Amino acid sequence: MIDLREISPAGVYSFAEAAKLIPSCHGGKTLHLATLHRWRLAGRIKAHRLPGRGWAMFGSEILKLLHADEMPEFTGRTPSQRSRDIDAAFAELKRLGV
Predict the structure, then answer these.
(1) Which helix (H) or strand (E) element contains residue 39?
(2) What domain range includes position 30?
(3) Tens digit of pLDDT for each residue in 3-37?
(4) Phi then psi for 62, rounded to 5 degrees?
(5) Is 56 helix (H, G, I), strand (E, B) or coil?
(6) CATH number at residue 91
(7) Are 62 and 7 in contact (CB under 8 A)?
(8) What's the rounded Cα separation, in Å, for the pair 73 and 38?
(9) Is the whole model's pTM more than 0.70, yes or no?
(10) Please, which pLDDT band fits residue 75 given cuts at 50, 70 and 90?
(11) Which helix (H) or strand (E) segment is 85 a member of?
């Protein structure tokens, strides 16, 4: 368990560091970096581009996530949705003659 007192609201944390601080919904695993990027693109978290490569977020944003009544909702596809999408992609390729 992360001690919230270790997170400085004014501190700047890379996505790799933030992922280690935010618990995953998969019991004991760390949050995946791609999840943070999806949340950033969806506007669910505020993040800032670092000079060069990478993204970072303030500790205050991490604390907001940890104190939220519910984490941002997972919006992935179900296996049946994935299967239908694959079938539709193959049908489109067949239609195009590929």
Answers:
(1) helix 33-41
(2) 4-96
(3) 667 788 888 888 888 888 887 776 667 788 898 99
(4) -65, -45
(5) strand
(6) 1.10.1660
(7) yes
(8) 11
(9) no
(10) low
(11) helix 79-96
